[in-house]
UniProtKB/TrEMBL annotation:
It comes from the Eukaryota. InterPro entries: EMB1417-like, TPR-like_helical_dom_sf. This is Pentatricopeptide repeat-containing protein At4g18975, chloroplastic.
Length: 199
């Protein structure tokens, strides 16, 4: 493995904004291919590191381009890459592309989809006001036995309310929300029963 190439690929991806590279898929993929042309192995570490930096810089279009390029090469097909790509689709308003990727993940990895990925997709649907899709994703989550976190449950409950199915809201909340929650009272953290406090 050529560490120098990893470093140069990583720098090239992170700094290509200033290199005047156009946004067209062919130009981007061509440049990325040239940067790794002499490598015997795909520089996955460098590409993953570049993705992390682009994500921190909120360069969502670049994140999408690099992640799609990696996947087109048969590289980086991990839950972490999928999570980053779904987030980038969300931030760039590309709900249809996110949904296509999500359907592929569901059909290919349905036995091993993490809570984090389900939460990411439900969050995306919530940000873009698609309550019926939130309910669908939640149904898949339940079917696969993945336990949702509190934030996800609140989004699901709100989606039931938006589509006029309030009768399904309470059972979901009581099934998944903990009976206890912590509040801060007079500078101390106190555990209280959720229902007693909420009522």
């Amino acid at each position: 493995m050529n560490l120098k190439c990893y470093s140069s690929l990583h720098k090239a991806i992170v700094n290509w904004q200033m290199s005047g590279l156009p946004n067209e898929k062919e130009a981007v993929y061509g440049a990325l291919d040239r940067w790794i042309a002499w490598e015997t192995e795909f520089p996955l570490i460098a590409a993953a590191k570049a993705l992390r930096i682009l994500r921190k810089r909120n360069q969502w279009k670049r994140v999408i381009q690099v992640a799609k390029w990696m996947l087109s090469k048969g590289q980086g097909a991990t839950m972490g890459t999928y999570d980053t790509l779904l987030l980038a689709f969300d931030m760039d308003g590309r709900v249809d592309e996110a949904e296509s990727l999500w359907n592929m993940i569901l059909h290919t990895h349905y036995r091993s989809i993490s809570k984090r990925l389900f939460s990411r997709m439900i969050s995306l649907y919530d940000h873009h006001n698609v309550p019926d899709k939130i309910i669908e994703a939640f149904a898949d989550m339940e079917e696969l036995g993945v336990k949702p976190d509190e934030d996800t449950i609140r989004r699901v409950a709100r989606a039931f309310q938006v589509i006029g199915q309030e009768d399904k809201q309470r059972p979901v909340l009581s099934k998944y929300l903990s009976k206890w929650k912590y509040i801060h009272y007079k500078g101390e953290r106190i555990r209280v029963r959720r229902d007693a406090w909420d009522d």
